[in-house]
Amino acid sequence: MVGRQQRAVRTRELILEAAAEVFDESGFAGGSITRITERAATTQGAIYFHFKSKEGLARAVIMYQAAHLEGLPQKPGGLQQLIDLTFYLAHELQRNVVFRAGVRLAVEQGEAGLSEYSIYQEWIERFRAELTVARAAGELLPDAEEGVFAAVLVAGFTGSQVMSQIASGRADLPERIASLWRCLLPGIAMPGARDALVLDAERHRGWSC
Amino acid sequence: MVGRQQRAVRTRELILEAAAEVFDESGFAGGSITRITERAATTQGAIYFHFKSKEGLARAVIMYQAAHLEGLPQKPGGLQQLIDLTFYLAHELQRNVVFRAGVRLAVEQGEAGLSEYSIYQEWIERFRAELTVARAAGELLPDAEEGVFAAVLVAGFTGSQVMSQIASGRADLPERIASLWRCLLPGIAMPGARDALVLDAERHRGWSC
């Protein structure tokens, strides 16, 4: 038997996914509550009950992006895993509408009147954890700064996906991520470690999470 | 005496500047033609005469960004000038509303239904010209690829300004650009050349254009 609370959780998910679809298609301003209501086959009352406002709904879609990625490895693994992770995210942007909408809203949040930096901070911390493992494994240059590099990597990824979206509907994103790594690796990796690293957009498929 | 054609040019500029202000404040969807009309103290007819549609106006604001920067050096000068150029752009984003609106619309162009990659291409070419001079001066690593690096630099700048806008209203943008360079220089500059380069956010003020 499905209880009331469990139904509420499922309704909330349904609304989030419908909102992600609509925001992905039309952005924040163009994505009306009416369309989201229709898409989720729910009521406006349910949307306002769960999310208070359209801004609250956009914020939830932004924050949902990281939690929704089921293919993420549980434990940090160092530089190669960080590289694979960025290709995995590129792949998810191409095929996962909730992630895509979350990233779009995170970039265009001026439209939503939001100022939600915490999602960028989450990705910086996630990347930094890989670098901490890399440091312990002797993969990093002595003067490389993990926190600085992690933030620059998030910035490079963000800009790459904005440009790839416009240039090719994100089809060339893996290629752009490979270019980003070719330019960034000499500033972070020990020459010996660098030679062993592979820029392969499909390598994340081998993860057993 | 001011002729009719000259008045038309001035009206077009007035509209562009008013549109930039409104888009900078409210984004594309939130910036109505009515508000732009009021801000420019002109008529809707004049706006549609010069720009055909709101989308046409947004496109013009995007393309206006590079032309409007009066402080750009005329001739490419190599790696130090490329560094100074990125700090100059960071400074212009903080103080120049037309540039800021153009960059915002270029990033959020999904909202405007545009797909205008040429402005990114223009910046890639501008940066690449500096790298061509740097190559001739022996500043670049033998295996560095100028075109790839120029595109990655545009991506890194774009992502940095998106994150800086959300984190600090762009106050920390120069610091983020310095971090970007610290991570990127080892992959592009010869060690000898790198030691002579300065990451100084104010150095562009010494340009005599």
How is this fold's topology laid out?
The structure is a homodimer of 209-residue chains.
Chain A: H1 4-30, H2 33-40, H3 44-51, H4 54-67, H5 79-95, H6 97-107, H7 109-112, H8 118-136, H9 146-168, H10 173-184, H11 191-196
Would you kindly provide a brief summary of this structure?
2 copies of one chain form a homodimer. Chain A is mainly α and 209 residues long. Chain A contains 11 helices and no strands.
How many DSSP H or I helices of chain A? 11
CATH architecture of the largest domain in chain A: Orthogonal Bundle
How many discrete structural domains of chain A?
2
Q: Regarding quaternary structure, how should these chains be classified?
A: homodimer
Describe the model.
The structure is a homodimer of 209-residue chains. The first copy, chain A, is mainly α. Chain A folds into 2 domains: 61 residues, Homeodomain-like (Arc Repressor Mutant, subunit A, Orthogonal Bundle), CATH 1.10.10.60; 140 residues, Tetracycline Repressor, domain 2 (Orthogonal Bundle). In chain A, 71% of the residues lie in helices and 0% in strands. Chain A is built from 11 helices and no strands. Chain A is elongated and about 60 Å long. Chains A, B: This is Branched-chain amino acid aminotransferase. Chains A, B: One of its GO terms (molecular function) is transcription cis-regulatory region binding. Chains A, B: Keywords: Aminotransferase, DNA-binding, Transcription, Transcription regulation, Transferase. Chains A, B: InterPro entries: ArpA-like, CprB_TetR_C, Homeodomain-like_sf, HTH-type_TetR-like_transc_reg, HTH_TetR, Tet_transcr_reg_TetR-rel_C_sf.
